[in-house]
Amino acid sequence: GDSVTQMEGPVTLSEEAFLTINCTYTATGYPSLFWYVQYPGEGLQLLLKATKADDKGSNKGFEATYRKETTSFHLEKGSVQVSDSAVYFCALTEKGGSEKLVFGKGTKLTVNP
Amino acid sequence: DAGVIQSPRHEVTEMGQEVTLRCKPISGHNSLFWYRQTMMRGLELLIYFNNNVPIDDSGMPEDRFSAKMPNASFSTLKIQPSEPRDSAVYFCASSNRGTRTYEQYFGPGTRLTVT
């Protein structure tokens, strides 16, 4: 079945460092891809999305590009802030136009001042 | 918009008791999802509804769990009887299937502790 694999965490960075969180997927067809973020004590929030190959999603300084050839959707940010500390989830739409999202296990990011 | 509303935010109960979690989706959304999150198993989809009809309940762990959506603005997830292994954070999410963007909007969650 469809699946998402994220890099193992936790990830600890200093403020202003460059961030990459790897995400690869296995899917039939052409799923939509998402990054969600979960701040402590809160529900998940959509961070960005891409719906077709070569699309770049971006929001709040974060970017991710839908790479069909490498089945990847890596999350990047050029300069992280303490407020970016959270858990990040990569997700895709299940095949067949289902509304179900398949989530990765999440990557915890801690940014130190 | 108020976003997805869940109640209670925290629930502590004893093993064997009935637990009812409540969710109010975003107005105008026609799909609703119940998830469970634990450290061991991560985020799991339990069940989802479209237009108040259950579409996929394959994630419901066992008969002790049941979910209803009597109308477009309210859903419940019930656990009867509860067990310690049910301790988790339960999230409700909603989306508008008509947009075909598949974006889901999550509530703040209910943290359930079964002792």
Describe this structure in words.
Chain A has 113 residues and is mainly beta. Helix content of chain A is 0%, strand content 50%. In chain A, a hairpin with a 5-residue loop joins strand 5 (33-38) and strand 6 (44-50). The mean pLDDT of chain A is 92. Chain B has 115 residues and is mainly beta. Chain B has strands at 5-7, 10-13, 19-24, 31-38, 42-50, 53-56, 65-71, 74-79, 88-95, 105-106, 110-114. In chain B, strands 2, 4, 5, 6, 9, 10 and 11 form a 7-stranded mixed β-sheet that branches. In chain B, a hairpin with a 2-residue loop joins strand 7 (65-71) and strand 8 (74-79). The chains are: A mainly beta (113), B mainly beta (115). Chains A and B meet through strand 6 of A and strand 5, strand 9 and strand 10 of B.
Break the fold down into its secondary structure elements and pairings:
The complex is a heterodimer of chains A (113) and B (115).
Chain A: E1 3-6, E2 11-14, E3 19-21, E4 23-26, E5 33-38, E6 44-50, E7 56-59, E8 62-65, E9 75-77, E10 86-93, E11 101-103, E12 107-112
Parallel strand pairs in A: 2-12
Antiparallel strand pairs in A: 1-4, 3-9, 5-6, 5-10, 7-8, 8-9, 10-11, 10-12
Chain B: E1 5-7, E2 10-13, E3 19-24, E4 31-38, E5 42-50, E6 53-56, E7 65-71, E8 74-79, E9 88-95, E10 105-106, E11 110-114
Parallel strand pairs in B: 2-11
Antiparallel strand pairs in B: 1-3, 3-8, 4-5, 4-9, 5-6, 7-8, 9-10, 9-11
